[in-house]
Amino acid sequence: MTLKSRPGSLGKRLTPYLYLSPTMVLMIILMLVPIVIVIGYSFYDNVIMNKHPVFIGIKNYAEILTDKNFHQTIYNTAFFTISSVVFHMIIGLTFSMLLNSKLLHQTTRSIFRVIYVLPWVFTAAIIAILWRLMLNPNGIVNYFLNIFGTIDSKVEWLGSRDTALYAVTFINIWSGYPFYMVSLLAGLQGISIDLYEAAEVDGANSVQKFLYITIPQLKPIIVSMAMLDCIWTMQQFSLIWMTTGGGPIRATEMLSTYTYKLAFSKYEFSQASSSAVIILIFSMLLAFIYVRKQKARD
After folding, report:
1. Of the candidates 16, 100, 196, 256, which lies 20 to 30 Å from 24 by C-alpha distance?
2. What is the CATH number of domain 69-297?
């Protein structure tokens, strides 16, 4: 009887893998194989453009890591990513607490929810066009700043090395905070009211309730969103490309645009592969930290 049951038990064990096999095959073909190919390309002199590429080891990595433009790119990406994540968190938490407040009427909260979530609805192309028009020297931003006396001349927000990085960071913050707001709002609504009532009985004020109840209860959500946001923001391409293209003079050059230009402007596909592998390593480190946090949370 044991021998007869073995085929059935084996079939039960294999059934989940049979269901997963189409997805696994697609992931291998569309993800794993391209990654392996790009890693292989990074060790040759210049693939695609050279019919007979020569193996040169880590020379491409050495050139990338010692390139001053790459150092500027690392700084821009770090500033862009850290600033975006921090302000996404602050603005998202502020708006979520406002929308969860009982001080506002239900209708008022519903209206503000629609308004606050609008930036998340727009595509990157619409956001880029919208802000390029508003930040134009003749745009509405300069107009109002001039009326209020903040500036006395027209500013090239996206065309000046002094302001371009701050401008694209602001745009990314504006377009990304609704993700935090919606997630944190759901988290706030999941906190038991009994905790706040017990704190009031113990004499806790609003600040103490926020620090010792709200933040600890939201911490798992905050950590998860921060990790994911770091990965997504570090790989941001479309918004940068459609607003500044990495300019002016590499002032807003990110790892993504730097790699793209190496491949499709300079046709240095091997160096572009090396840059892509470096981005992959950064992303995998963040993903590893995220998975560990998720396991600790579970």
Report:
1. 256
2. 1.10.3720.10
